[in-house]
Write a structure and sequence with these properties.
The chain has 196 residues and is mostly helical. 81% of the residues lie in helices and 0% in strands. This is AcrR family transcriptional regulator.
Length: 196
């Protein structure tokens, strides 16, 4: 059976994404030439340019795919919580767990701000994670668990604090200790926002 053009295009994009994601996670964006990605994907350099424009465009697609996955993991963790207050802590733990994986640390925390620029990195982070954070905070306000506050602003600040914690952990000499300290401080801060 012959594949359609769209099926071939999807297959090519998937091969490029998989190869790039693995290589970027292993060695970082700067250490991976575009020629190596296309060789590993088994496609031509022209296919890379056709589907993603350039190596940076492919990196952005890989980063966005990773962001979608991490957001889904965090959202799933909140559904396992017995209550919303626990859900906030479960979400924090799930996010920090994800950020400890080599691919997340290298691609999302180390390379993305440098490759895409801080503003673009923050926009993509906000597009995927901010909606989830604001939704959880809205629920907390609706249930009377959270002190009334401008939820959109609070959501941005929570997301910024959690991202900063992940960056601190990624760059720490002792990541395990940094993770423990950051998780403790963030939990205290988040629980302090709740109505007693």
């Amino acid at each position: 059976m012959r594949r359609t053009q769209e099926e071939r295009s999807q297959s090519t994009r998937a091969a490029l994404m998989a190869a790039a994601r693995e290589l970027f996670a292993e060695r970082g964006y700067q250490a991976v030439p575009a020629d190596e990605i296309v060789r590993a994907a088994g496609v031509t350099r022209g296919a890379l340019y056709h589907h993603y424009g350039d190596k940076q465009g492919l990196f952005r697609a890989v980063f966005e795919e990773l962001e979608v996955e991490v957001t889904a993991e965090v959202e799933a963790a909140t559904k396992d919580a017995p209550d919303l207050a626990s859900g906030l802590l479960f979400a924090l733990k799930a996010f920090l767990d994800a950020c400890e994986r080599d691919e997340c640390r290298q691609i999302a925390l180390i390379d993305a701000p440098a490759v895409l620029g801080w503003t673009t990195w923050r926009e993509i982070e906000a597009e995927h994670g901010l909606g989830l954070v604001v939704g959880l905070l809205d629920q907390a306000v609706g249930q009377g668990l959270l002190k009334p506050a401008p939820v959109a602003v609070l959501g941005q600040l929570v997301l910024s604090a959690v991202n900063e914690a992940a960056l601190m952990i990624a760059h720490a000499d002792n990541p395990a200790q940094a993770r423990s300290d950051a998780e403790q401080v963030l939990a205290i801060w988040l629980m302090g926002l709740l109505v007693e």
